Amino acid sequence: xxxxxxxxxxxxxxxxxxxxxxxxxxxxxxxxxxxxxxxxxxxxxxxxxxxxxxxxxxxxxxxxxxxxxxxxxxxxxxxxxxxxxxxxxxxxxxxxxxxxxxxxxxxxxxxxxxxxxxxxxxxxxxxxxxxxxxxxxxxxxxxxxxxxxxxxxxxxxxxxxxxxxxxxxxxxxxxxxxxxxxxxxxxxxxxxxxxxxxxxxxxxxxxxxxxxxxxxxxxxxxxxxxxxxxxxxxxxxxxxxxxxxxxxxxxxxxxxxxxxxxxxxxxxxxxxxxxxxxxxxxxx
Amino acid sequence: xxxxxxxxxxxxxxxxxxxxxxxxxxxxxxxxxxxxxxxxxxxxxxxxxxxxxxxxxxxxxxxxxxxxxxxxxxxxxxxxxxxxxxxxxxxxxxxxxxxxxxxxxxxxxxxxxxxxxxxxxxxxxxxxxxxxxxxxxxxxxxxxxxxxxxxxxxxxxxxxxxxxxxxxxxxxxxxxxxxxxxxxxxxxxxxxxxxxxxxxxxxxxxxxxxxxxxxxxxxxxxxxxxxxxxxxxxxxxxxxxxxxxxxxxxxxxxxxxxxxxxxxxxxxxxxxxxxxxxxxxxxxxxxxxxxxxxxxxxxxxxxxxxxxxxxxxxxxxxxxxxxxxxxxxxxxxxxxxxxxxxxxxxxxxxxxxxxxxxxxxxxxxxxxxxxxxxx
Amino acid sequence: xxxxxxxxxxxxxxxxxxxxxxxxxxxxxxxxxxxxxxxxxxxxxxxxxxxxxxxxxxxxxxxxxxxxxxxxxxxxxxxxxxxxxxxxxxxxxxxxxxxxxxxxxxxxxxxxxxxxxxxxxxxxxxxxxxxxxxxxxxxxxxxxxxxxxxxxxxxxxxxxxxxxxxxxxxxxxxxxxxxxxxxxxxxxxxxxxxxxxxxxxxxxxxxxxxxxxxxxxxxxxxxxxxxxxxxxxxxxxxxxxxxxxxxxxxxxxxxxxxxxxxxxxxxxxxxxxxxxxxxxxxxxxxxxxxxxxxxxxxxxxxxxxxxxxxxxxxxxxxxxxxxxxxxxxxxxxxxxxxxxxxxxxxxxxxxxxxxxxxxxxxxxxxxxxxxxxxxxxxxxxxxxxxxxxxxxxxx
Lengths: 284, 375, 395
What we know:
By secondary structure, chain A is mainly alpha-helical. Chain A has helices at about 1-10, 15-40, 60-70, 70-105, 105-120, 125-135, 140-145, 160-180, 185-195, 200-230, 230-235, 240-250, 255-275, and strands at about 45, 55. In chain A, helix 5 packs antiparallel against helix 8. The longest helix of chain A has about 35 residues, at about 70-105. The N and C termini of chain B lie close together (about 10 Å). Chain B has helices spanning about 1-10, 25-30, 70-80, 120-130, 135-150, 165-180, 195-215, 225-230, 250-255, 260-265, 365-375, and strands at about 35-45, 45-55, 60-65, 85-90, 95, 105-110, 185-190, 215-220, 235-240, 240-245, 270, 275-280, 285, 295-310, 310-320, 325-330, 345-350, 355. By secondary structure, chain B is of the alpha+beta class. Chain B is elongated, with a radius of gyration of 24 Å. Chains A and C meet through helix 2, strand 2, helix 4 and helix 12 of A and helix 1, helix 3, strand 8, helix 9 and helix 15 of C.
């Protein structure tokens, strides 16, 4: 029997591929696309006003609310703005670290650094946000450190959200850039230098263009993670982000929450299209 | 005095020796393109390059030959500026460049892996150095076209490196380097990744291009055939030192020591009367009944191995006086079945001048001391 | 590769769209039926009980060894208790609707939704022996009864108080104006705090009820459009002075400890915790009155272990357990018999358990619905509108 099965696959490579992919694709369709479909469908439902229970049936009320109510636009732009700021900050912070790891550190140091970069990801996200909440508080470490200079920390607010998100998502930027830099053979840098380019020029003409896809890959992480987060704004912010509105409506008004969730999805689709236009996926 | 010193250095180790390499008249008057003095590079306890002195003449095709880890690539990198010497200095055209960064040296390198910029077209790759040197656009295009013609890649300018074959990439790398008209072109095993046929073809092309542009080439390889085919002079590297520096012919015919003899070509080392001798396989013949043996050294022996390799048959002969030699027998058309059956008793013979006496030890330190006494 | 040219992404989108279409139009699964059959007796217990509760409402000694009223209950009834702690009313409603729980300690803003949704069962309270001793003020309220039917055992109550740092806020505030009136609130700009909860709109309504009688607010949870907009505007104005909308009691406490907040709406629980930790804070009930919460243990209409739940309700209504939970959580007990059993003899006084006047000043949380409950008819703003407005207020 097994023999016959083997013979069957032998002559039919497509059948083999289909058999191998059936389980993961099935999972993808049911678990991933299915849940996405349910969520999108839910965005057309509405609430029974007495019981607060979800009533199924087609209606565009939720999208009408989102488009007509200015607060959702404000929140969307705020969220995108912070996501962009976090992405740029992380790219600027991550590049030198990743460059040191990939090109300058000795192999031993390299593995130590990779672990060091990944280490914060092993601890709970909530613990890290909690720690930042303490540091940013009125009597916290940041104000204490700044007070000798007559300065005052940002306190809780959008600036604090930007700081904390930049910190928390930084590894997601470092690792792709590190991997991207590692894929650049050292000989390319030598060749550029050999052809007369000073380090700054080599950086601009060789390293940057070759690392760009990796930076975009990292930015997809930092951007989308910031876009969806609600815990950091709830802890160190005083303004709402898309995630907070989804969260606060998730129980009270699931259809509206589902409709709001469409916003980051659309934003990400646009972001990915722009990234593709810049050739971010060409060398992947 | 200086000249004399260099001369003695060049023939270092070749004590039995040999007419010295003929020199071009230009060399006497001009400064060498590259001069290394006491050049040393250490990695921890390991000395990769051990106090090397070397002159490379203008317009010369100079090869650094040696096994991996012999220090040849490290030396090349110190000339290019990618490695800094721990001691000694590098001079280019009489100017000390030891402390300068690679971008400040008028040398260009063809890398072993070609190191073409994958995000740029062939043309952009070739113009890279020119654009950095702020050469005007029109001149750039002209020189790029010329370089592409030289490496026979006309019409490939708009391709990306990953659309080219290995040999084509190799040519682009060459064009990218020579288009800058450097004083010296450094080539780090540039043909290592190509298959045999292509490699042989490229050897010829490289040599042609070199004579066309007249740039000094310093070529690193571990392939003795390649070195012998292309070079004006060859420096044989071993354990961070130069074992011998001479013309390909001298190197082959008169190896300075056992290492060189063994590394360059097949070596038959035998000991006779307390002296170590080496004879190339093609210099030995099998002597049949009644063959004249005038002026030949002859010995008896027995064939223990025989291998047909096309143009020749290689046989191994155990000699009665001790030792064994490899003999290359031409498979000429006249012989229906060439000699060389295993077990056959034979007489081998060679001309006495082809049995080259060589140094016993591989270390050249003592040789060097002797030399210093001489000079 | 030729497979790549078939645009699997496009295919996936089509698939999603097809699914969306089917689900949006046809829906999936019916809604639960309302169950108005009153429970009139307690039968044999089922050996297990699954609860949804506020933190501190069902202590089994795991937080503090001496605080345990679950273990004795388990011994007495043989009902093994599993407690799921919820942190918001919204979460409680969500959990109840999974049908996996037997009962819940619902606050007023959740209980109306549960009753209206048929998620909980009405009970003939005479079958629970301790119900007779419950504070009459807590019986037959909007948030625990409907159409003359009762939906559970009152648990206890508390007011939302004005908590302030005595060093930073002087003289002691006696009005919500300290946080709502721009003239006063601007003094504490950036250090005012408020609960991150849509029901906080009612607090603004309480303040407007006292300060702007023209609006004619009679019940802060039954707001018509004008009244509602006035409250929302007040809160939007307040927003610029707010340092933080506190998401839970722990964070509220840490904000006062770290100096990030100096004044705002809070609970007696936080006040006691901060005072116990040596912080120089105090709280009072402002002259305008306040909102508050009154919780009720309710029985799920889909309960697997209804008899264990009924036993639990009665247990929680007993004077001894009432004394324990009221002291542990920091609230006024529903059973006044508990006042003689608390370890702190002044507990009931501290929490004004018997203070009718204090009690009358409190508008207890209930879910806002369209029926205004008076002759205005069904023109009041519903809870989902409150939630949306809350989003706008926070900006």
